[in-house]
Amino acid sequence: MNTLHAIVLNPLRSFAKKSSFSAIILFLSAFAAVIIANSPWHGASQKFLNHVIGFTIGDFQVYKPLLLWINDGLMSVFFFVVGLELKRELLSGELSSPKKVIMPILGAIGGLVVPALIYVWFNGAQGDEALRGWGIPMATDIAFALGVLYLLGDKVPIQLKVFLTALAIIDDIGAVLVVAIFYTSELSVYSLFTGSIIFGMMMFLNLMGVRKVLVYAVLGIGGLWMAVLLSGVHATIAAVIAAFAIPANRTIDKAKYGENLSKLRTQFINEKSDPKKPDLLTSNEQNILGEISRITNESISPLQRLETSMHGLVLYLVMPIFALANAGVNLSAYWFEDLTSPVSLGIVFGLVLGKVVGIYGACMLGLKLKLYKMPDGVNHLMVLGVSLLAGIGFTMSLFITSLAFTDYTYIAQAKIGILMASIIAGTLGHWVLRRSLK
Q1: What separation in angstroms does the CA of 38 have from each of 325, 328, 329, 423?
Q2: Which helix (H) or strand (E) holds 133?
Q3: How large is the average pLDDT for residues 376-401?
Q4: 178 lies in some domain
Q5: Helix (H), strand (E) counts: the chain
Q6: Helix (H, G, I), strand (E, B) or coil at 270
Q7: What is the CA radius of gyration of the chain?
Q8: What is the per-residue burial (b if ≥16 Cβ within 10 Å, else e) of 101-123?
Q9: Is 412 a residue whose pLDDT tops 50?
Q10: Residue 146 pLDDT > 80, yes or no?
Q11: One domain for residues 392 and 266
């Protein structure tokens, strides 16, 4: 059994912890979606995704197709984790230092603006419906981008990983703002007011020292998320807002934790075990271990506990399900016509060319103006490679596609463009980074 652990299980667990593993799962989910979309099961899968489900409580009722529950509900979990990561980064991470954050901010702004302008240039004469897709090439899929970067192994400087992470998080902020401002339907002032009151309650509880995650879950899901869902603003925005109400300070500080842990350790060692059953803990020993678990839990902030516990859920369940439900595109005999359509070309050139010109160009301009120095161990070619990886829009681009278009023709064209751009950007980015590391 020990040999099995050493040879098979331990390497598998080690690989599963890497970002590249989640990227592979995401890729397989997208591939499966394309296979299903071009198989005899396509009709059944669409019928399943369009099946209406919901609930009624008194006079209140909410019924939506399963696909919308995935895009509004499951993706809210994704955006909640993004919000948690963003708050942590602003408080103590890379985004908390003005000197370190200037370069990724400039790069992210360039990577948002230039792709959108390229898309508009391709689709300016196509009408309002096609123009609504301008937000699609602005997005970066952080899971895929980091996954490709981690495939290069330990040779990649940690500063480059930090730069890409900061760049992608700032990019996500831009995408969230775009969704909130430009992809919002008719507003319900009453629902927005209700959501504001609930968010105020969550912030008040935070200030009052309430650290029970369940309290914030009930208010966040049953109150804030539902209110925003009914307001006309996309429900995923509620998830980002709710994340900022989660407490970032801990109940037990480091010194107190060490003191309590030392006392409990002494009690546990001095506790006499049953000599007849040495492998079984006494009730007192179990109580001591339970207290150790409690103080350990309280020495970690709710923000970090939630981020850690939900990270795997998002990477290995939420995003693969979203990809499976949304990445399917029918590659009919006319697929090449779809690929050469203004919508598809705007996305491909926006993600591949626009991200490089925007991110790399803005970063080099900042260096030229001496606003900052190049991070240690990072060179120009590495920044170019990361700029290419940022062109992997996939999850976020598919998400914005679901908000931008109602015409299936445009949706199909957008999906083909996103898939093609993500493959090109990922391949070129990997190749450039391999050369830069040599």
Answers
A1: 14, 8, 8, 19
A2: none
A3: 88
A4: yes
A5: 25, 2
A6: helix
A7: 24
A8: bebbbbbbbbbbebbbbbbbebb
A9: yes
A10: no
A11: no
Residues 336 and 288 in one domain: no
Same domain for 85 and 121, yes or no, is yes
Q: Report the predicted TM-score, pTM, of the whole model to 2 decimal places.
A: 0.74
Distance CA 420, CA 353 (A): 13
CA 245 to CA 228: how far, in whole Å?
16
Q: 413 and 421 in contact (C-beta within 8 Å)?
A: no
Note whether 434 and 377 are within 8 A (CB): no
Tokens, residue 238: 């509620």
Please say whether the beta carbons of 356 and 105 come within 8 A: no
For 207, other C-beta atoms within 10 Å of its C-beta total: 8
Q: What number is the average pLDDT over the span 331-348?
A: 79
* pLDDT value at 4 more than 60: no
Query: How many CA atoms does the CB half-sphere of 98 hold within 13 Å?
Result: 1
Same domain, 286 and 308: no
| 327 belongs to a structural domain | yes
Report the amino acid identity of residue 335.
W
Which of 373, 382, 362 minimizes the C-alpha distance to 99?
Answer: 373
CA distance linking residue 222 with residue 103, whole number of Å: 39
Q: How far apart are CA 418 and CA 247, in angstroms?
A: 37
Which of 14-28, 190-204, 265-279, 296-310 holds the top average pLDDT?
Answer: 190-204
Q: Are residues 143 and 123 in the same domain?
A: yes
**More confidently predicted of 423 and 73:** 423
Q: Residue 402: which residues within 8 A CB-CB, separation 6 or more?
A: 71, 326, 411
| Banded pLDDT at 16 (limits 50, 70, 90) | very low
Report the C-alpha gap between 268 and 272 in whole angstroms: 9
Tell me if 366 sits within 8 A of 406, measured CB to CB: no
Q: Cα(108)–Cα(407) distance, rounded to whole angstroms?
A: 30
Please provide the size of the chain in residues: 438
60 has which bridge partners?
Answer: 57
